[in-house]
Prior knowledge:
The protein is of the alpha+beta class. It is built from 4 helices and 3 strands, in the order αβααββα.
Amino acid sequence: MQSELNDDQYRLLQTFNDLAAGSPTTDVAASDAAQAAEFDPRSLDFDAALTYLVDVGLLVGAGGNRYTITVAGINEVQRRPQL
C-alpha cells in the first residue's frame, strides 16, 4: 500500500516505529507516541493523525490506549526518506 501521509501523520507513524524499535509485535501507548512526536494527546491534530493511521492499516489497536505498527506501517516509514 502506498499512502500519501501528511506531515503530522508521517511524524506520528515514524514515532510509533521508533518506540516499537521497528517491531510489528511491540505495543506502544498512544500517549507515549504523542509526547515523543510533540503532540498534545488531547488535540484534534493528534486524534486525526492516529485515526487516519489506523483507518489505512498502518497501525492497529492493541487494546486500551495501545497500538502496534503493522508491517505496512514499517514499510511506509522505510520507504519515505527521512525529513
